[in-house]
Amino acid sequence: MEFDDKFLLELCQLKSNGSSLLTLSTTSGVEYQVLTNSDSTTKLIDIAALLGKSMGLAIVDCSASSETIGVMKQGVDLGCCVVMANKKPLTSTMEDYDKLVSHPRRIRHESTVGAGLPVIASLNRILSSGDSVHRIVGSLSGTLGYVMSEVEDGKPLSQVVNTPNQTQDFCFHLYPRDDLSGMDVARKALILARLLGRRINLDSIKIESLYPKVMGSNVMAVEDFLDNGLLLLDKDIQERVNKASLNGNVLRYVCVIEGSRCEVGIQELPKDSPLGRLRGSDNVYSTSEDTASTTRMSL
Q1: Domain end: 56, 85, 114, which one?
Q2: Looking at 52, 82, 114, which one is the last position of a domain?
Q3: Tens digit of pLDDT for each residue in 128-151?
Q4: Could you count the other beta carbons within 10 Å of the beta carbon of residue 13?
Q5: What is the pTM of this model?
Q6: In Å, what is the CA distance from 69 to each residue of 49, 162, 196, 273?
Q7: Which among 118, 165, 235, 262 has most CB atoms closer than 10 A?
């Protein structure tokens, strides 16, 4: 079945308003079914078994859940294409990862890294040409990029996180620690490292969180974290910003992959460097690789 433009526009408007698909009341005449219970997995696999190989069925995962891993793996076994915006299946165990990428021509996951930048496609082209990528450096979180820019301008971290932002497409108030922990960037780093052939897991990555463990979700409630915990972090982050400024540098939250090293965290960088010139939620990514002479690609 093909969805017409009217239906797709209604769908986009619904999601942009933050509403559930359950509230969809289409006037375009398209028949659809929203599965909300345990039958959804069974029905999806039944459809995949019927249409996977013969029709090139694609299973699309736009969730942020690890519960989709089993379905995606079964889809691969049934000859389906898999399309993912969800990073968690690709950052699960090596066994899960190997299954998902076992048919490279039937998987696409460009939006898992780099926002709108063609990071995955560019890296795959380099590797397909036979070149070896030795180093990847990037600022891969629009949220943390925005945070770093704002504290650089003198705003307290607590104010940056607690002030609603009308110009950026993210909000801290539901799950503020998801980004501030660095885990989202670590997942992106792991995806890139595995594309380079590194056989590593999340626990192999050195991750710098913007808050201590005593402010973790299993210790401190979200409201307490936003109202009180963040205030305790303001002084430390501002001191780091001021120290970097005295050296003519800025702070950026960076991913580095080089050899066996894979880490994410705050780095002090020259203002005129590609990462130092970043403002707001922009992303940047660069590689160093072997060709006839060593070259560098930046996005």
Answers
A1: 114
A2: 114
A3: 999 889 999 999 998 999 999 999
A4: 10
A5: 0.86
A6: 17, 34, 22, 39
A7: 262
